[in-house]
Amino acid sequence: MIVLETGFGDAAEAFLENRISPGVNIIFSDDNNKGKTLVIQGLMYSMGNEPIFPSGFNHRNYMFYSKIESGGTEWSLLRKNNSMLVFSNGKILAFDSISEFKHYFHSTIHNLPIIKKDKSNKIADLALVFQLFFLPQDKRNTSNVFNSGYHKKPDFYELVYSLSGSDPVAMDETQIIEIKDEIAKLEEEGKITARRLKFSKSHPKIAEITHKSSDRKSFEAKRLVLESINKRISELRKDRAREVNRKIRLEQLISELNSLNRDLSTGRVICADCGSNKVVFKNLDYSFDVSNQFVRNEILGSIKNEIEIKKETIDEFTRSLNYEQDQLNKELESTPKSLQTILLHSEEILSDVEIDNKLTEINQKIDELKRELNTSEKTKSDTKTANQNVIDVILNMMNSIYKDMDPNGRLFFDEIFTKKGETYSGSEEQEFYFAKIVALSNILNLDYPVIIDSFRDGELSSGKENYMIEKYLSLGKQVILSSTLKQEEYSSSKYSDFIGVNTIDYSVNNTSQILNTNYVSQFSDILKRFNIVMENG
Question: What is the DSSP letter of 335?
Answer without folding.
Answer: S
